[in-house]
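Chain and conformation:
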Amino acid sequence: VFVGPSGCGKSTLLRMITGLETPTSGTIAIEDTVINDVDPAKRGTAMVFQSYALYPHMTVFENISFGLRMAHQPKALIRERVEKAAAILRLEKLLDRKPGQLSGGQKQRVAIGRAIVREPRVFLFDEPLSNLDAELRVQMRAELLELHERLGTTMIYVTHDQVEAMTLADKMVVMMGGKVQQYGRPLDLYDDPDNKFVAGFVGSPKMNFLSARVVTAGPEGLRVDLAAGGAASVPLAATLAPGARVDLGLRPEQLSVVAAGQSLPADAVTVTGRVALIEDLGAESYLHLHLADDSRIGVRTVRHAAHLGDEVRVA
């Protein structure tokens, strides 16, 4: 999965792989075969776009089989492949319908079916679920994972939704400004980001960054003063000079609200903030706090009885 903010180059990279854009340098290879100069129709790729791009006057069967019919494939082969794809995508009872009679999820499955019948070496998905409502997106994500298991074909998937990327990817590529920021398994990127952009992009809610100033640094770790108040010890060997500015990154689940009268360990670090936003999600809540240095942090908690404007202490 290629993931990153709008304009970072994800779709351009996808279009270069399928041959719709020409790279200015470098090579593109599928199974060790360089395909830079290979005609797009002969690359063995099949693309599914954000818009379904279905022909409204054609039936589902005709839409799925369109590419095969244009390639003058035998009718028996066309029917066999369409029926096989329809069974995989649960479209068997919809083959005689036209797109206007289908739901958004059904239309997206037809678009995927059109790619499946070509039996490509690589599937390319360009934000295929962004036009669907939230519940249907979750359902279609599960269906795409099942499809990948059944077909065993490589899929390259582009999205700006990092939750979608985390749940779908075996390997995840985080991009920014046309450059790959980090590549690897989703949880590896979550646990060990290479830079501040990846740290802040991967994870929802996003990582908190607390501005701090180095007091001491050595083999045993850092001692820093937080701009929002208080000091912290960080078990990270560093050679930073005293006075250097650093950002301390903390996930919302690494913070907890301190109850009145609650005892804390001697080395506990706390900050106090004013509640600016409360997201009640049922089993848990997210508190967004406005700190003394004008920064904001998010805290995951279990149904906290806070109100907007309350002062909350966080450890």
Remarks:
- The chain has a mean pLDDT of 90.
- The two ends are 35 Å apart (CA to CA).
- Residues 134-151 form the longest helix (18 residues).
- DSSP finds eight helices and 16 strands in the chain.
